[in-house]
Specification:
One of its GO terms (biological process) is AMP salvage. The chain is built from eight helices and eight strands; from the N terminus they run βαβαααβαβαβββαβα. It has 211 residues and is of the alpha/beta class. The chain has a five-stranded parallel beta sheet, with helices on both faces. The chain binds BIS(adenosine)-5'-pentaphosphate and zinc ion.
C-alpha cells in the first residue's frame, strides 16, 4: 500500500506513521528524519541560499526541492509499501510525487493552531533511538530519560517557540495549498487529529485497511 499522511507541524504525523508502518508492515518514509540524519550534508555546490540542510531547518524554512525530491525518489524506489510523512510540502513537490508514484490513500490530520504550538514546544525526543515524548501529554516514566532505551531526552532545535511560529507560517503559505489540491481532487480523507493518539490511530487504521 502507498499511504500519504498530511498535516501541519505537530499534527502527529510522526506518531501515527511509525505505528502504521509497524502494524501494516510498511516502510516509514519521512523527509524530516532523513534530513535530520543528513543535516550537515554539503549542498554548497548547488548554489542555494545556505550550504547545509541544518540552516534551513533551524530557521523553520523548507530545504530546497532538488535536495528533498532526490531523497524521496530513492526511498520510494527502495520501498514496497510505504507511509510517506513530511512530503510533499509545496505544489512543486506534489507534482513531482505524482510523476514518480501513485497513492492508495491520502490522509490529513486536522489539529488547531493553538494545540500545534503546545505539542511542539512540549515535545522531547530521545537522542539515541528517536522515540517521541511530550512533557505533559506523553511524559516518560523518569524525567528526561527514554523509556525504551534509557537515552537522554532532548528538545529538537526547531521546537523553540520562535522557530515553531516560522514553521507554521511556512506551512500556511506552502503546504496548505497541497492539502487543498488533494481535497479538490476528492481523495483527501480528513481525520480529527485532536483525539488521543490511540483514537487518531483507530480512524487512520480504518482508512488504511480499506486502501
Ligand atoms: P519535519 O520533521 O517533517 O517536521 P514537521 O512537519 O514540522 O512535523 P513534526 O515532526 O514537527 O510533527 P509531527 O506531525 O510528526 O508530530 P509528532 O507526531 O512528532 O520537518 C522538519 C524540517 O525539515 C522542516 O521545517 C523543513 O526545514 C525540513 N523538511 C522536512 N520535509 C521537507 C520537505 N518535504 N521539503 C522541504 N523541507 C523539508 O507529534 C508532535 C508532539 O505532539 C509530540 O510531542 C507528540 O508526543 C505529541 N502528540 C502527538 N499526537 C498527539 C495526540 N493525539 N494528542 C496529544 N499529543 C500528541
Ligand atoms: Zn530511546
Amino acid at each position: 500500500k502507498h499511504i500519504l499522511l498530511l498535516g501541519a507541524p505537530g499534527a502527529g504525523k510522526g506518531t501515527q506513521s511509525k505505528r502504521l508502518a509497524s502494524e501494516f508492515d510498511l516502510e516509514h518514509v519521512t523527509t524530516g528524519d532523513a534530513l535530520r540524519a543528513n543535516k550537515d550534508m554539503d549542498i554548497s555546490d548547488m548554489d542555494f541560499e545556505y550550504d547545509t540542510p541544518r540552516e534551513y531547518m533551524e530557521s523553520g524554512d523548507l530545504v530546497p526541492d532538488d535536495v528533498v525530491n532526490e531523497i524521496v525518489k530513492t526511498a520510494l524506489q527502495e520501498a514496497d509499501g510505504y507511509v510517506l510523512d513530511g512530503y510533499p510540502r509545496n505544489i512543486e513537490q506534489a507534482e513531482y510525487l505524482t510523476e514518480i508514484t501513485d497513492l492508495d490513500a491520502v490522509l490529513y490530520l486536522d489539529v488547531s493552531e493553538e494545540e500545534l504550538v503546545e505539542r511542539l514546544t512540549g515535545r522531547r525526543v530521545c537522542d539515541d533511538c528517536g522515540a517521541n515524548y511530550h512533557v505533559e501529554f506523553a511524559p516518560p516514566e523518569e524525567d528526561g530519560v527514554c523509556d525504551d532505551c534509557g537515552g537522554e531526552l532532548i528538545q529538537r532545535e526547531d521546537d523553540t517557540e520562535e522557530t515553531v511560529r516560522e514553521r507554521l507560517t511556512v506551512y500556511h503559505k506552502n503546504t496548505e495549498p497541497v492539502v487543498n489540491h488533494y481535497r479538490d481532487e476528492g481523495v483527501l480523507v480528513e481525520i480529527d487529529g485532536e483525539q488521543t493518539p490511540d483514537g487518531v490511530f483507530d480512524d487512520v487504521a480504518e482508512v488504511v485497511e480499506d486502501a
